[in-house]
Specification:
By secondary structure, the chain is mainly β. The chain has one domain: outer membrane lipoprotein receptor (LolB), chain A (Clam), CATH 2.50.20. The chain is built from two helices and ten strands. Strands 6-5-4-3-2-1-10-9-8-7 form a ten-stranded antiparallel sheet, covered by helices on one side. The protein is elongated. It starts with a helix and ends with a strand. The relative contact order is 0.16.
Length: 177
């Protein structure tokens, strides 16, 4: 009987969460902008690919995650910082490709991707690896975002460039302050 009462008493304390004290954590003002969107990729001689994306724009980097639209499997990641471009493909056994971008300013790319005012014309971001042309800006929460992006990509200086047309359909935009 004593064991039964002791067990009930301990069970009552744990069910009331008397011993579960949660520590409050200070919110870090990361200032991230998180964009969820559907992307249509159109390469030169191939069919259009549809991908769901999650784009995180923070102070020091831009991270783009691509997911399969039906299965939700991560297809790859793209990390852009001031001095490098990292591509991690989940389809090819987690291969990681890193390119030095020559110390470009990340803020130029951020201003082309998220504009505070409507641009009637296109804006261009270019470095030694990639050239991006942003067009058809849409008014969304927090700024103006490009609807169409043209990408010219060359992994090496002497190699041929690959062209891709990207159409973006924005689903939601969150500011993590």
């Amino acid at each position: 009987m004593n064991k039964f009462l002791t067990a009930c008493f301990i069970l009552c304390f744990f069910s009331c969460q008397t011993f579960n004290i949660k520590k409050t954590t200070a919110k870090n003002g990361s200032g991230q902008l998180i964009i969820y969107s559907n992307v249509d990729l159109e390469f030169a001689n191939q069919k259009t690919s549809k991908i769901k994306t999650k784009i995180k724009i923070s102070r020091d980097s831009i991270s783009i995650l691509g997911y399969h639209p039906l299965l939700g499997i991560e297809l790859g990641r793209l990390l852009i910082t001031d001095d490098r471009l990292e591509i991690k493909s989940s389809l090819t056994n987690n291969e990681k490709i890193t390119h030095k971008t020559g110390g470009d300013k990340l803020n130029r790319l951020k201003k082309s991707l998220v504009s505070p005012k409507l641009k009637q014309d296109s804006s261009i971001y270019e470095n030694n690896i990639i050239k991006l042309v942003f067009r058809d800006y849409l008014a969304m929460e927090g700024g103006f975002f490009p609807k169409k992006i043209t990408c010219l990509y060359s992994p090496n200086q002497a190699g041929s460039k690959t062209k891709a047309n990207i159409s973006v359909e924005y689903k939601s935009i969150k500011k993590d302050l």
